[in-house]
From TrEMBL:
<feature type="domain" description="DUF4429">
    <location>
        <begin position="2"/>
        <end position="66"/>
    </location>
</feature>
<feature type="region of interest" description="Disordered">
    <location>
        <begin position="86"/>
        <end position="110"/>
    </location>
</feature>
<dbReference type="InterPro" id="IPR027860">
    <property type="entry name" value="DUF4429"/>
</dbReference>
<dbReference type="Pfam" id="PF14472">
    <property type="entry name" value="DUF4429"/>
</dbReference>
<protein>
    <recommendedName>
        <fullName>DUF4429 domain-containing protein</fullName>
    </recommendedName>
</protein>
Length: 110
């Protein structure tokens, strides 16, 4: 992950576990832009659940990343271009009516 894409990181301890979370610049990630930033916690690729036995390690990691970020090197405001690749597109979808697949050239329904 390019450092200019993530100007912040935080570790938040909770009752049974903690969460390590990257904060991305607006416009840096096509996935967050497409979802309007409304991904559920279970689908957020920038959030990591951490067991309380690893809380010290997670806090250390967050502090080291914050030191590496050097705020004066990260541009403020929205990114002018995506800094991260988008997720892969599903190549097959199944429903009660059948399956649709895509091989990169053709769409096939079964």
């Amino acid at each position: 992950m390019p450092l200019e894409a993530a100007p912040g990181i935080a570790f938040a301890p909770e009752r049974r576990r903690g969460r390590l979370r990257l904060r991305l610049r607006e416009g840096a990630d096509p996935l967050l832009q497409a979802t309007g930033g409304r991904l559920p916690d279970t689908a957020d690729p920038y959030r990591l659940s951490v067991g309380l036995d690893r809380a010290g390690t997670a806090e250390y990691l967050a502090e080291e990343v914050r030191r590496a970020l050097l705020p004066d090197r990260i541009p403020e405001g929205q990114a002018t271009a995506y800094l991260l690749p988008g997720p892969p597109v599903p190549v097959s979808v199944r429903s009660s009516d059948g399956t649709v697949s895509f091989d990169g050239t053709r769409v096939r329904t079964d």
